[in-house]
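User: Can you predict the 3D structure of Lysophospholipase L1? Sequence below.
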Amino acid sequence: MSVRLVALGDSTVCGMGDPLPDGSWRGFAGLLAATFPTSEYTNLAVSGARTPHVRHGQLAAALELRPDLACLLVGVNDTMRSDFAPAVVRAHLTETAAALTGSGATLLTARVHNHARVFGLPPLLGRPLWRRLCALNEIYDEVYERFGGVRVDLTSVSWIYERANWSVDRLHPSELGHRRLAHAFAVQLRDAGWPVAELPSLTASGGLPPTPLADLRWMLVEGVPWAGRKARDLVPWAATLAGRELLRRARLAERSPAS
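Assistant: Sure. Here are the predicted structure tokens for Lysophospholipase L1:
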């Protein structure tokens, strides 16, 4: 049985953090595709994608490929923008999931971890970001309850907060992190009866070995330009979150009975 796997999503789904010697990205979806004896694999993910980009920019191409498995991981970029609106994200994810499953695909989704801990954010920023990520998880819970499929719950695994599983930017998984995610999906697919020939190795190999020089090059070539592009939105977003958190604390203090 040849498995048609199509990946939709953002930079993590693209494979960023798991570079190959030829300069391309592999990532967990590519590693997962390699676990099947035969497969047809297409990665439609785009760095920086948000839920409307997937629905309106990636979904049509995915449906043309008639996938057996459709990886749908997107939404974290939405939570890190000043215009984050759970109702809008829910609508885009629900419509995308409905179209994919309606075409016969089995969904691959995930519940996201508290990435504020990975970033090492102070509580003033970490708490509001985590609340947004929890709102995203609630949407994915609804998607999973309605459309089923295979889901990895990253809130229930301890390895997600280990530094070795993250690239130098602490935003994208490292090769090991991608391998762990691919392994988690492969175990569930195997247990569900999919023809998984061999689980992905949890030993980092075959990619581009991380070195201080490679990390420095990444920061100069990719990291700094990325930060510059996002600063116009992320800085106001961070300031807004911090302000709202301070206001929330003040209101809670006002409601608390005097000691």
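The first strand starts at residue 2 and ends at 9. The chain has one domain: 2-255.
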